[in-house]
Amino acid sequence: MSETLETLPSTDRKVPQHVAIIMDGNGRWARKQGLPRIEGHRRGAESVKRALNAARDFGVRYLTLYAFSVENWNRPKEEVDGLMKLLERFLVDQHKELMKRKIRLRVVGRYRELPVRIQELLQRAEADTSDFKDQTLALALNYGSRTEVVDAMQAIARAAQAGTLDPEKLDYETLRSYLYTKDMPDPDLVIRTSGEYRLSNFLMLQAAYAEIYTTSVFWPEFTEAHFKAALDDYAARERRYGKTAEQLQNA
Ligand code: IPE
Ligand code: IPE
Ligand code: MG
């Protein structure tokens, strides 16, 4: 690394193209304040807006947010209903904003199992923003990596049965084209808040070579400054993809 590059602010040097966030800790944040869990989720929606601004300001083109996992249906009905209400409100509020700021919205997950009203809002937002190229917001909703692989495998098996796909030619690129994330690059950086160190069924194939950053901050308290700290940490990493450090220096 040359001296000039070292003296530049780190984010100018190595900005991840795609950041994916496991937004965790809403419930614990609320509990700490003596508030109901749903209040944590409400405050979490504010952090989503901050993260979207931060992504734009720091030049991150793809932001994927884990908002609801396939496993989250197992929470108390009252909490699930509350989350769906907040999601609906978020989508109504943000439609104009996404249009104005030219942000493309994508949904990753089995969205046909979501409430119909939310499906309609998502479809409309996806359609209205589909031509925007500069920034993409992907919402992982009713998402699970294992479900995603099962859905891909079913489609692949159907294509093989119909004779449009040769099983002998099946490679990772083909499998990749059947994932919900087919039109997005893999995440470079995965952030998890609230001090947990697990993937919880999130982008397990796509994050195969992602850098992982965890912070003890609960999601409702996550600000632009925390986002920046994660990007700075990322900028100092060396991604080797199986090679040696010497090989990379000589490249
Ligand atoms: C993340 O916060 C939001 C969702 C999973 C929907 P949590 O609700 O998981 O918060 P904790 O982990 O219970 O604190
Ligand atoms: C992961 O958080 C899912 C989302 C952030 C939407 P969870 O809180 O559901 O994960 P676990 O259960 O702690 O692994
Ligand atoms: Mg949690």
> Kindly state the mean pLDDT as a whole number?
94
Net shape:
globular
Q: What is the number of independent domains?
A: 1
User: Mind summarizing the main beta sheet?
Assistant: 6 strands, parallel
The percentage helix is: 40-55%
In DSSP terms (H or I, runs of 4 or more residues), the helix count works out at 10
CATH superfamily: Decaprenyl diphosphate synthase-like
Q: Give me the side-by-side strand order of the main sheet.
A: 3-4-2-1-5-6
Q: Measured on Cα atoms, how large is the radius of gyration?
A: 19 Å
* Strand segment count: 6
CATH class: Alpha Beta
Search tags:
single chain; 251 residues; alpha/beta; Undecaprenyl pyrophosphate synthetase; 6 strands; 47% helix; disordered N terminus; binds 3-methylbut-3-enyl trihydrogen diphosphate; binds magnesium ion
Describe this protein's structure.
The chain is an alpha/beta fold. The protein has one domain (14-142, 188-236): 3-Layer(aba) Sandwich (Undecaprenyl pyrophosphate synthetase). It has helices at 3-7, 10-13, 26-32, 37-58, 77-100, 116-129, 145-162, 172-176, 224-235, 245-250; strands spanning 18-22, 62-69, 103-108, 135-143, 189-192, 211-214. It has a 6-stranded parallel sheet, sandwiched between helices. Helix 6 (116-129) links the parallel strand 3 (103-108) and strand 4 (135-143). The relative contact order is 0.18. It binds 3-methylbut-3-enyl trihydrogen diphosphate (2 copies) and magnesium ion.
